[in-house]
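Structure (tokenized):
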């Protein structure tokens, strides 16, 4: 029986007494499915009556409280079977952003001597180098802005995958309509709030330095306040920053409502959420570092071999490629995991799985 285009195959758990893979031992539809159907959306297909297992799974996500393995497995499945709206979106954003420093450095290379050789480096070369590095910084900022929007798209992709739907790139982008500026405003507000808190902490040292002649007092203050700051940063990350973007996208909340929603969802769930988020950040960071090593090493080698005038261009180009490649994995994976944690917390605290089953057309008997 062919699956309708645009939907994940229904799981159809076997009747009691049969193995999970059926008489032949084959994997269920999701595991065996290796071809991408057309992106045209259709309603998900519910399994036949009487075929509901203990954990309903109309799509990529088991509709029950999720363990670590469930979350990572679902994240990779969503990325694998919907690369256009996950990896494709991240690559598109990174590629467009990194075009800026590459083009700017290319223009400067052919108009200003960017050679780093001693004896040829003058004021013009210094200004050109500053312009090249500045363009890379601008591209990085634009990339981060774009990835914020990608995180909103990924939230919709994950929510759709949970009920067996596959969103195309255009559908995922369209789902964020009316919420994009709110999402950017949320990210800007949280960043400014964190910078203000860190700035306030740094300024708290000024009276001690000006009014106290004792270095010991400053050291004591640092020893007492430093651990408090280190405890506050993870708390702020999980309670105020980690989930509001997903909540805003899926529940169509305002900035204040999204922050409050994330705060409430992580109540009495902090350590579990923090542990999984920290592990995900470490995995993604390590993978991104490994992916960037060949480009960094290759860039250094090529920069030595080519004409010194083109060495800066080679370094910028290879760094841009490394950024695009690492973003292709880091951004979709981390945002998918965060969105899955949001679903998991709602399932645990609000029985959200019942609502998801209703949306998927599944009725428990």
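Design, position by position:
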């Amino acid at each position: 029986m062919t699956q309708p285009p645009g939907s994940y195959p229904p799981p159809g758990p076997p009747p009691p007494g049969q193995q999970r893979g059926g008489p032949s031992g084959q994997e269920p539809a999701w595991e065996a499915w290796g071809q991408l159907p057309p992106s045209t959306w259709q309603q998900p297909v519910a399994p036949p009556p009487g075929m509901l297992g203990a954990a309903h799974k109309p799509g990529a996500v088991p509709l029950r409280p999720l363990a670590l393995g469930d979350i990572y497995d679902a994240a990779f499945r969503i990325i694998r079977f919907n690369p256009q709206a996950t990896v494709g979106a991240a690559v598109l954003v990174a590629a467009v952003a990194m075009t800026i420093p590459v083009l700017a450095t290319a223009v400067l290379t052919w108009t200003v001597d960017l050679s780093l050789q001693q004896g040829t480096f003058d004021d013009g070369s210094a200004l050109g180098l500053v312009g090249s590095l500045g363009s890379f910084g601008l591209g990085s900022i634009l990339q981060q802005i774009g990835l914020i929007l990608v995180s909103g798209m990924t939230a919709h992709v994950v929510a759709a995958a949970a009920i067996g739907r596959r969103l195309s790139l255009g559908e995922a982008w369209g789902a964020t309509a009316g919420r994009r500026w709110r999402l950017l405003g949320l990210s800007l507000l949280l960043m400014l709030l964190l910078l203000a808190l860190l700035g306030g902490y740094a300024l708290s040292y000024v009276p001690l330095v000006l009014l106290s002649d004792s270095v010991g007092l400053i050291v004591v203050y640092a020893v007492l306040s430093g651990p408090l700051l280190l405890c506050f940063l993870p708390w702020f990350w999980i309670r105020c920053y980690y989930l509001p973007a997903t909540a805003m996208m899926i529940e169509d909340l305002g900035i204040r409502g999204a922050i409050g929603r994330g705060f409430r969802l992580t109540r009495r769930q902090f350590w579990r959420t923090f542990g999984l988020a920290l592990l995900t950040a470490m995995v993604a960071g390590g993978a991104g570092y490994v992916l960037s090593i060949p480009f960094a090493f290759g860039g250094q080698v090529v920069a030595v071999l080519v004409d010194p005038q083109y060495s800066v261009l080679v370094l910028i180009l290879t760094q841009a490629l490394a950024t695009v490649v690492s973003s292709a994995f880091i951004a979709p994976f981390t945002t998918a995991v965060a969105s899955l944690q949001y679903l998991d917390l709602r399932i645990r605290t609000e029985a959200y799985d019942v609502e998801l089953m209703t949306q998927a057309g599944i009725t428990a008997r």
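Reviewer-requested clarification: The two ends are 24 Å apart (CA to CA). Residues 14-42, 44-54 have pLDDT under 50 and may be disordered.
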